[in-house]
Protein backbone atom coordinates (compact mmCIF):
# COMPACT_ATOMS: atom_id res chain seq x y z
CA UNK A 1 0.00 0.00 0.00
CA UNK A 2 1.36 3.39 -0.95
CA UNK A 3 2.45 5.82 1.83
CA UNK A 4 0.11 8.42 0.40
CA UNK A 5 -2.81 6.14 1.21
CA UNK A 6 -1.55 4.90 4.60
CA UNK A 7 -1.08 8.40 6.03
CA UNK A 8 -4.73 9.59 5.58
CA UNK A 9 -6.02 6.29 6.94
CA UNK A 10 -3.80 6.60 9.97
CA UNK A 11 -4.89 10.16 10.57
CA UNK A 12 -8.56 9.15 10.29
CA UNK A 13 -8.12 6.30 12.79
CA UNK A 14 -6.27 8.57 15.20
CA UNK A 15 -8.97 11.24 14.92
CA UNK A 16 -11.79 8.78 15.55
CA UNK A 17 -10.02 7.20 18.50
CA UNK A 18 -9.55 10.64 20.08
CA UNK A 19 -13.29 11.48 20.02
CA UNK A 20 -15.88 10.62 22.64
CA UNK A 21 -19.61 11.09 22.18
CA UNK A 22 -21.44 12.02 25.37
CA UNK A 23 -25.12 11.26 24.82
CA UNK A 24 -28.20 12.84 26.36
CA UNK A 25 -28.65 11.77 29.96
CA UNK A 26 -24.89 11.32 30.48
CA UNK A 27 -21.86 13.29 31.60
CA UNK A 28 -18.25 12.52 30.74
CA UNK A 29 -15.44 12.28 33.27
CA UNK A 30 -11.82 12.54 32.06
CA UNK A 31 -9.08 10.48 33.68
CA UNK A 32 -5.63 11.64 32.59
CA UNK A 33 -2.62 9.63 33.76
CA UNK A 34 -4.76 8.23 36.58
CA UNK A 35 -5.96 11.64 37.79
CA UNK A 36 -9.64 12.62 37.63
CA UNK A 37 -10.48 15.99 36.12
CA UNK A 38 -13.08 17.72 38.39
CA UNK A 39 -14.80 19.30 35.36
CA UNK A 40 -17.42 17.15 33.66
CA UNK A 41 -17.87 16.89 29.90
CA UNK A 42 -21.31 17.94 28.61
CA UNK A 43 -23.37 16.27 25.89
CA UNK A 44 -21.87 16.18 22.41
CA UNK A 45 -18.60 15.22 20.71
CA UNK A 46 -15.56 15.62 22.98
CA UNK A 47 -11.93 15.49 21.83
CA UNK A 48 -9.22 14.03 24.05
CA UNK A 49 -5.77 12.48 23.87
CA UNK A 50 -6.40 8.72 23.61
CA UNK A 51 -2.85 7.90 24.75
CA UNK A 52 -3.00 9.83 28.03
CA UNK A 53 -6.71 10.29 28.70
CA UNK A 54 -9.77 8.08 29.09
CA UNK A 55 -13.36 9.36 29.10
CA UNK A 56 -15.74 7.59 31.52
CA UNK A 57 -19.45 8.11 30.87
CA UNK A 58 -21.80 8.32 33.87
CA UNK A 59 -25.59 8.24 33.28
CA UNK A 60 -27.54 11.05 34.94
CA UNK A 61 -30.99 9.86 33.83
CA UNK A 62 -33.28 7.86 36.12
CA UNK A 63 -32.15 4.25 36.52
CA UNK A 64 -34.42 1.39 37.62
CA UNK A 65 -32.51 -1.04 39.83
CA UNK A 66 -34.56 -4.17 40.52
CA UNK A 67 -33.70 -6.24 43.59
CA UNK A 68 -35.03 -9.39 45.24
CA UNK A 69 -34.71 -8.89 48.97
CA UNK A 70 -35.86 -10.70 52.12
CA UNK A 71 -37.72 -8.41 54.52
CA UNK A 72 -37.50 -9.28 58.22
CA UNK A 73 -40.77 -8.53 60.01
CA UNK A 74 -41.44 -7.39 63.55
CA UNK A 75 -42.56 -10.85 64.67
CA UNK A 76 -39.41 -12.46 63.28
CA UNK A 77 -40.77 -13.77 59.96
CA UNK A 78 -38.99 -13.37 56.63
CA UNK A 79 -41.04 -11.94 53.76
CA UNK A 80 -39.72 -12.30 50.22
CA UNK A 81 -40.08 -9.22 48.02
CA UNK A 82 -39.24 -7.74 44.64
CA UNK A 83 -38.24 -4.08 44.88
CA UNK A 84 -37.56 -1.37 42.31
CA UNK A 85 -35.15 1.41 43.29
CA UNK A 86 -35.48 4.47 41.08
CA UNK A 87 -32.38 6.66 41.42
CA UNK A 88 -30.17 9.02 39.46
CA UNK A 89 -26.72 10.57 39.74
CA UNK A 90 -26.25 14.31 40.20
CA UNK A 91 -24.04 15.31 37.25
CA UNK A 92 -21.78 17.64 39.24
CA UNK A 93 -20.88 14.77 41.59
CA UNK A 94 -19.82 12.41 38.77
CA UNK A 95 -16.02 13.08 39.02
CA UNK A 96 -16.09 12.53 42.78
CA UNK A 97 -18.14 9.34 42.38
CA UNK A 98 -15.68 7.93 39.82
CA UNK A 99 -12.70 8.88 41.99
CA UNK A 100 -14.04 7.67 45.36
CA UNK A 101 -16.36 4.80 44.39
CA UNK A 102 -15.81 3.89 40.74
CA UNK A 103 -18.24 3.22 37.91
CA UNK A 104 -19.74 0.21 39.71
CA UNK A 105 -21.38 2.45 42.31
CA UNK A 106 -24.72 0.59 42.17
CA UNK A 107 -23.17 -2.61 43.58
CA UNK A 108 -20.64 -0.82 45.80
CA UNK A 109 -22.90 1.77 47.48
CA UNK A 110 -26.57 1.79 46.50
CA UNK A 111 -27.36 -1.91 47.05
CA UNK A 112 -25.62 -2.18 50.46
CA UNK A 113 -27.33 1.00 51.67
CA UNK A 114 -30.67 -0.32 50.41
CA UNK A 115 -30.28 -3.70 52.16
CA UNK A 116 -29.41 -1.96 55.42
CA UNK A 117 -32.31 0.47 55.12
CA UNK A 118 -34.87 -2.17 54.20
CA UNK A 119 -33.85 -4.39 57.12
CA UNK A 120 -34.07 -1.45 59.53
CA UNK A 121 -37.48 -0.28 58.29
CA UNK A 122 -39.26 -3.59 57.69
CA UNK A 123 -38.39 -4.86 61.18
CA UNK A 124 -40.70 -2.15 62.60
CA UNK A 125 -43.78 -3.62 60.87
CA UNK A 126 -45.70 -6.86 61.17
CA UNK A 127 -45.67 -9.11 58.11
CA UNK A 128 -49.39 -8.56 57.50
CA UNK A 129 -48.80 -4.78 57.36
CA UNK A 130 -46.62 -5.22 54.27
CA UNK A 131 -49.66 -6.50 52.38
CA UNK A 132 -51.96 -3.60 53.33
CA UNK A 133 -52.06 0.18 53.16
CA UNK A 134 -48.92 0.27 55.31
CA UNK A 135 -46.86 -0.59 52.21
CA UNK A 136 -46.68 3.06 51.13
CA UNK A 137 -45.33 4.02 54.57
CA UNK A 138 -42.67 1.31 54.32
CA UNK A 139 -41.60 2.50 50.85
CA UNK A 140 -41.41 6.10 52.00
CA UNK A 141 -39.40 5.22 55.11
CA UNK A 142 -36.87 3.14 53.14
CA UNK A 143 -36.36 6.02 50.71
CA UNK A 144 -35.83 8.51 53.55
CA UNK A 145 -33.22 6.28 55.22
CA UNK A 146 -31.36 5.83 51.92
CA UNK A 147 -31.44 9.54 51.15
CA UNK A 148 -29.96 10.33 54.56
CA UNK A 149 -26.88 8.26 53.67
CA UNK A 150 -26.58 8.99 49.95
CA UNK A 151 -27.64 12.60 49.34
CA UNK A 152 -24.17 14.00 50.19
CA UNK A 153 -22.52 11.47 47.86
CA UNK A 154 -24.31 12.62 44.71
CA UNK A 155 -27.19 10.13 44.52
CA UNK A 156 -30.87 11.04 44.45
CA UNK A 157 -33.29 8.25 45.39
CA UNK A 158 -36.54 9.11 43.63
CA UNK A 159 -38.68 6.16 44.76
CA UNK A 160 -38.53 2.76 46.40
CA UNK A 161 -41.36 0.53 45.16
CA UNK A 162 -42.34 -2.80 46.70
CA UNK A 163 -43.51 -4.53 43.52
CA UNK A 164 -44.47 -7.85 45.09
CA UNK A 165 -44.68 -9.32 48.58
CA UNK A 166 -44.68 -13.09 49.24
CA UNK A 167 -45.87 -13.90 52.74
CA UNK A 168 -45.22 -17.28 54.39
CA UNK A 169 -47.90 -19.83 53.47
CA UNK A 170 -49.25 -20.16 57.02
CA UNK A 171 -49.55 -16.41 57.45
CA UNK A 172 -51.29 -16.02 54.08
CA UNK A 173 -53.90 -18.62 55.13
CA UNK A 174 -54.39 -16.86 58.48
CA UNK A 175 -54.91 -13.49 56.76
CA UNK A 176 -57.40 -15.00 54.30
CA UNK A 177 -59.33 -16.63 57.16
CA UNK A 178 -59.39 -13.36 59.06
CA UNK A 179 -60.66 -11.45 56.03
CA UNK A 180 -63.36 -14.08 55.47
CA UNK A 181 -64.42 -13.84 59.12
CA UNK A 182 -64.55 -10.03 58.90
CA UNK A 183 -66.73 -10.26 55.76
CA UNK A 184 -69.09 -12.69 57.51
CA UNK A 185 -69.30 -10.37 60.51
CA UNK A 186 -70.06 -7.39 58.27
CA UNK A 187 -72.73 -9.42 56.44
CA UNK A 188 -74.35 -10.44 59.74
CA UNK A 189 -74.20 -6.85 60.98
CA UNK A 190 -76.00 -5.75 57.82
CA UNK A 191 -78.74 -8.34 58.41
CA UNK A 192 -79.13 -7.26 62.05
CA UNK A 193 -79.30 -3.59 61.08
CA UNK A 194 -81.95 -4.38 58.48
CA UNK A 195 -84.03 -6.35 61.02
CA UNK A 196 -83.75 -3.50 63.54
CA UNK A 197 -84.89 -1.01 60.92
CA UNK A 198 -87.85 -3.24 60.00
CA UNK A 199 -88.81 -3.59 63.70
CA UNK A 200 -88.58 0.17 64.12
CA UNK A 201 -90.79 0.63 61.06
CA UNK A 202 -93.43 -1.68 62.51
CA UNK A 203 -93.35 0.14 65.85
CA UNK A 204 -93.83 3.49 64.11
CA UNK A 205 -96.66 2.03 61.99
CA UNK A 206 -98.39 0.59 65.08
CA UNK A 207 -98.02 3.87 66.96
CA UNK A 208 -99.55 5.71 63.99
CA UNK A 209 -102.52 3.33 63.89
CA UNK A 210 -103.03 3.65 67.64
CA UNK A 211 -102.89 7.43 67.51
CA UNK A 212 -105.36 7.49 64.60
CA UNK A 213 -107.80 5.29 66.49
CA UNK A 214 -107.45 7.42 69.59
CA UNK A 215 -108.22 10.56 67.61
CA UNK A 216 -111.27 8.91 66.04
CA UNK A 217 -112.52 7.64 69.40
CA UNK A 218 -112.02 11.01 71.04
CA UNK A 219 -113.91 12.71 68.20
CA UNK A 220 -116.97 10.39 68.34
CA UNK A 221 -119.12 12.39 70.77
CA UNK A 222 -122.87 11.54 71.29
CA UNK A 223 -123.94 14.65 69.42
CA UNK A 224 -121.71 13.80 66.46
CA UNK A 225 -123.12 10.25 66.34
CA UNK A 226 -126.71 11.62 66.44
CA UNK A 227 -125.87 14.11 63.68
CA UNK A 228 -124.45 11.36 61.47
CA UNK A 229 -127.58 9.25 62.15
CA UNK A 230 -129.84 12.14 60.97
CA UNK A 231 -127.73 12.43 57.80
CA UNK A 232 -128.19 8.69 57.22
CA UNK A 233 -132.01 9.00 57.67
CA UNK A 234 -132.12 11.80 55.12
CA UNK A 235 -130.16 9.80 52.55
CA UNK A 236 -132.36 6.76 53.10
CA UNK A 237 -135.58 8.78 52.72
CA UNK A 238 -134.53 9.97 49.27
CA UNK A 239 -133.58 6.49 48.02
CA UNK A 240 -136.02 5.00 45.43
CA UNK A 241 -135.56 1.47 46.72
CA UNK A 242 -138.19 0.02 49.07
CA UNK A 243 -136.80 -0.78 52.47
CA UNK A 244 -137.72 -1.09 56.13
CA UNK A 245 -135.91 1.12 58.62
CA UNK A 246 -135.84 0.15 62.26
CA UNK A 247 -134.36 2.65 64.64
CA UNK A 248 -134.17 3.44 68.30
CA UNK A 249 -133.93 7.12 67.47
CA UNK A 250 -130.17 7.18 67.52
CA UNK A 251 -129.01 4.96 64.62
CA UNK A 252 -130.88 3.24 61.75
CA UNK A 253 -130.97 -0.45 60.95
CA UNK A 254 -131.85 -1.02 57.30
CA UNK A 255 -133.61 -4.15 56.03
CA UNK A 256 -134.49 -4.94 52.43
CA UNK A 257 -138.20 -5.18 51.56
CA UNK A 258 -137.96 -8.85 50.71
CA UNK A 259 -136.64 -9.77 54.15
CA UNK A 260 -139.81 -8.48 55.87
CA UNK A 261 -142.61 -11.14 55.91
- Can you tell me the overall shape? rod-shaped
Q: Please, how many helices?
A: 6
Using only CA atoms, what is the Rg?
46 Å
Strand content: 25-35%
Structural class: alpha+beta
Could you state the order of secondary-structure elements as H and E? HEEEEEEEHHHEHHEE
Characterise this structure.
It is a single chain. Helix 3 (105-122) packs across helix 4 (135-150). The chain has helices spanning 3-17, 94-100, 105-122, 135-150, 169-219, 222-237; strands at residues 19-22, 26-32, 35-41, 44-47, 53-59, 63-72, 78-89, 155-166, 243-247, 252-256. Strand 6 (63-72) and strand 7 form a beta hairpin. It contains six helices and ten strands; from the N terminus they run αβββββββαααβααββ. It is of the alpha+beta class and 261 residues long. It is rod-shaped. Residues 9-16 and 254-261 have low confidence and may be disordered.
Give short descriptive properties of this protein.
261 residues; 10 strands; three-stranded antiparallel sheet; alpha+beta; single chain; disordered C terminus; 6 helices
List the helices and strands and how they pair.
Layout: H1 3-17, E1 19-22, E2 26-32, E3 35-41, E4 44-47, E5 53-59, E6 63-72, E7 78-89, H2 94-100, H3 105-122, H4 135-150, E8 155-166, H5 169-219, H6 222-237, E9 243-247, E10 252-256
Antiparallel strand pairs: 1-4, 2-3, 2-5, 6-7, 7-8, 9-10
What's this model, at a glance?
By secondary structure, this protein is α+β, with helices and mostly antiparallel strands. It has six helices and ten strands, in the order H-E-E-E-E-E-E-E-H-H-H-E-H-H-E-E.
Amino acid sequence: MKPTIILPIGLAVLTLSSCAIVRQGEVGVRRTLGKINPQTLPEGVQLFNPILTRVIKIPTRTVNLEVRAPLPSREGLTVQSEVSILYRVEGSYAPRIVEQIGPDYAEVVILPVFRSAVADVSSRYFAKDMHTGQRADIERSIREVMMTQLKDRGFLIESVLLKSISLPAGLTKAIEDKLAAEQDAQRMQFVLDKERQEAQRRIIEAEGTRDAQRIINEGLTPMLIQFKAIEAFNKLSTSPNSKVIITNGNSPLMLSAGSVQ
